[in-house]
Specification:
This is MFS transporter. InterPro entries: MFS_trans_sf, TM_effector. It is a single chain. With 419 residues, the protein is mainly alpha-helical. The chain contains 17 helices and no strands. The protein has helices at 10-41, 44-60, 62-71, 74-95, 98-103, 106-135, 144-193, 210-223, 225-240, 247-254, 258-280, 289-309, 313-341, 347-376, 378-399, 401-404, 409-417. Helix 3 (62-71) packs antiparallel against helix 14 and helix 9 runs antiparallel to helix 15 (378-399). The longest helix is centred in the middle third of the chain and has 50 residues, at 144-193. It is globular and about 60 Å long.
Length: 419
């Protein structure tokens, strides 16, 4: 298959620009917030609460958001999502002004940050399903796997540059003006998005009752062994392998590398994942997908263990880089499963379930890591997470032989034959 097939469609290239700008802004914003909150509190649990403040609204309305996405035009819905993110980033720009720290108590500033993160969680509930659904309207069905790979690669590229730039910008211009840059990228994303035309609504059940719609979406996900197995495995692995939430502690108190080192640590997993994803455009991963996914998550657990016990900066960076490389394998396989196995009229709802299983597990994992660090200590918390990840992989491999034998080669061939 042509490794550049999806890039031959103009609107898909514009979409990649939108996705890059948004992910760059979102990932940079999360890093800046982490740094600011830990600087205010010096409490590892406060880092976990950031994730909790985002996961509560994201999970609470995720299924409802999927229903809304399936019932509405996708381009304009994404415009509203980006406008919502812009409001949040501008609010954080205001609340991090130096004069605010003088006029208000640190707890007041902290609670204001948490409130804005909560609003961002509401936006996130809609943005993931909208993007997932929009991709399918920009390219022919036969190149969905290639489009998913390029979309994920763009996501990872932005995830590399966003955290790295955040770490350096905090040192160069401070938290406040770093937030101004983030707001600028959200405006840039809107500029690109208006160059994509409105798309047709493919759902034949417009006006369908909400609860029936949600029931159908959940029933489809839980009845699909491939989708349900991939989501469950990734959810548990990410939940207990959320060591990245504790990176501010490692950077400031264990490795002593400052904000610049923090940016490098935060970007290392995304660098590894980006290399994996770019390589997968020439070397697809759909053959023996089940076994590859299990081995990838197992290797991820090993990397987290190495990072947890390391006191050397270079070794920590390598461990995080390799964790990202193998996590890229699991991400590509999961996205390929979702794109190939999901009907057009259910993409919003399936993507919402995906956000509950996988997307929210990042934030829940951040809370788990912060709480475990508070109770067990930082290093012990990371080691515990790595061990739980390995246990999850072993259990899945033993109890689900069907998933071990999962192969997507036939599905890819069928879609490539479609006109």
């Amino acid at each position: 298959m042509d490794p550049y097939a999806a890039l031959r469609f103009k609107e898909f290239n514009i979409f990649l620009g939108v996705r890059f700008a948004m992910v760059f802004a979102w990932s940079m914003q999360f890093i800046v917030i982490e740094w600011q909150v830990y600087s205010l509190t010096k409490d590892p649990l406060s880092l976990g609460i950031i994730g909790l403040m985002e996961i509560i609204p994201a999970v609470s309305i995720a299924l409802f958001a999927g229903h809304i996405v399936d019932q509405n035009e996708k381009r304009n819905l994404l415009v509203k999502c980006i406008l919502g993110f812009s409001v949040v980033s501008f609010g954080l720009f205001l609340i991090t002004h130096p004069s605010v720290a003088i006029d208000y108590a640190s707890k007041t500033v902290l609670y204001a940050i948490y409130a804005l993160v909560f609003i961002g969680g509401l936006v996130r509930a809609f943005i993931g399903p909208t993007i997932f659904s929009l991709i399918a309207l920009l390219v022919p069905k036969k190149i969905y796997p290639n489009a998913a790979t390029w979309s994920s690669s763009t996501w990872q590229m932005a995830s590399v540059l966003g955290p790295a730039f955040a770490g350096f910008s905090i040192g160069w211009i401070g938290v406040h003006w770093s937030m101004c840059i983030i707001f600028g990228f959200s405006v840039l994303a809107l500029f690109f998005l208006f160059r994509i035309s409105k798309k047709p609504i493919l759902n034949p059940k417009i006006g369908e009752p909400v609860f029936k719609s949600l029931k159908d979406g959940l029933k489809f996900v839980f009845s699909s062994k491939a989708i349900f197995g991939a989501l469950t495995l990734d959810m548990v692995a990410v939940l207990f392998g959320g060591a990245v939430a504790l990176l501010p502690i490692y950077a400031q108190d264990i490795l002593h590398v400052g904000s610049e080192g923090f940016g490098i640590l935060r970007a290392a997993p995304a660098v590894g994942a980006s290399i994996t994803m770019l390589g997968s455009t020439r070397f697809p991963l759909h053959k023996n997908a089940g076994k590859k996914l299990l081995w990838a998550v197992f290797a991820f657990g090993i990397c987290i263990l190495v990072f947890g016990i390391s006191e050397l900066f270079w070794l920590s960076v390598i461990a995080l880089f390799l964790s990202g490389a193998v996590d890229g394998v699991s991400m590509i396989i999961r996205q390929t499963i979702l794109q190939l196995k999901t009907p057009d009229n259910m993409r919003g709802r399936v993507a919402s379930v995906n956000s509950i299983f996988v997307g929210s597990s990042n934030e829940l994992g951040a809370f788990e890591s912060g709480l475990a660090a508070k109770l067990l200590g930082t290093v012990s918390a990371v080691v515990f997470g790595g061990c739980m990840t390995l246990l999850t992989v072993g259990t899945t491999a033993l109890v689900s032989p069907t998933f071990r034998k999962l192969d997507l080669a036939k599905d890819v061939e069928e879609h490539e034959k479609e006109k």
